[in-house]
Amino acid sequence: MQPLFEIDSAFRLLCPTQLICRLIFAFAMYIIIYGLYNIGLTKGLVQVFEPLVTGSLTNASILIGGLVSSMSTLVNNHPALMIGTTTLTEMNLDSLTLKIAYLASVIGSDIGSLILPIGTLASLIWMNLVRKAKVKISWMDYVKVTIVITPPVLLFTLILLALWVGWIFPMH
Fold it and tell me: Which residue ranges traverse the bilayer (predicted)?
């Protein structure tokens, strides 16, 4: 039994060029993040995380980096970073803690997104290229490697960030 239409042809009808597809994706992503902001997601995150990160560079680095990393794993690195950024802009943190939290959110979104292939568009493209080259790597094979490597690398990087910033600005 043939489907009524091919997904590929329907997709091409909606997105005739890659540029249009990317613009539609980016616009939709901003709308979703703005909607989450409007329903209070960031306010809830601020209430939970602000007391935990206030006054501690290490806590700011590890907790904010871990939060954005977790979101990156589940949704994608760009929306997660946008949620993290809007959350941080609502926090009443001192200048140095805010800066380290921003850096930690970028690190978390970039490293944490590697745990699942859906974390970054680059991972999805890579999985597709590997499949087209007839190399068999399942999502489970991918996750078996990344789940072992990514969390320790992320934790090490976030701790190093806190130590480095604490070393540069010792009066904090």
Answer: 19-37, 100-126, 147-169
What is the Cα–Cα distance from 89 to 31, expressed in whole angstroms?
18
State how far the Cα of 60 lies from the Cα of 104, in Å rounded to an integer: 8
**Which pTM does this prediction carry?**
0.81
Q: Which residues of 9-23 are buried (b: 16+ CB within 10 A; e: fewer)?
A: eeeeeeeeeeeeeee
Q: For residue range 132-149, what is the model confidence (pLDDT) as tens digits?
A: 899 998 989 999 999 999
CA–CA–CA angle 93, 97, 100 (5° rounding): 135
Sequence-ordered list of residues with C-beta below 8 angstroms from that of 83, at least 6 positions apart, any chain: 33, 36, 37, 41, 42, 45, 68, 71
